[in-house]
Design brief:
alpha+beta; 3 strands
């Protein structure tokens, strides 16, 4: 099982979109364990959206859709206001 996730850093108004097979470990990495990378600059992150997929290919395709301009607009207009 693969999870596409959207995390949000409220203090910086930043969105990050990714996919993983272990969501708890991945969020821990974004918030505490990682020593380098883009997400360490904008901690803390909270999960605002998840979607489950049975294959990695499906998850990668959905991640790509959400990372597009239209996908980011969808997140900002539909998902973010609910959180």
């Amino acid at each position: 099982m693969f999870t596409v996730y959207v995390i949000y850093a409220k203090a910086f108004d930043k969105i990050y979109i990714g996919y993983t097979s272990d969501l708890q470990q991945r969020i821990l990495s974004h918030n505490k364990l990682a020593k380098k990378g883009w997400t360490i600059r904008f901690r803390p992150w909270v999960i605002i959206h998840t979607e489950q997929f049975s294959t990695k290919a499906e998850a990668m395709m959905r991640e790509k859709q959400l990372k597009s301009s239209r996908g980011r607009s969808f997140i900002r207009e539909s998902i973010l206001p609910k959180n």
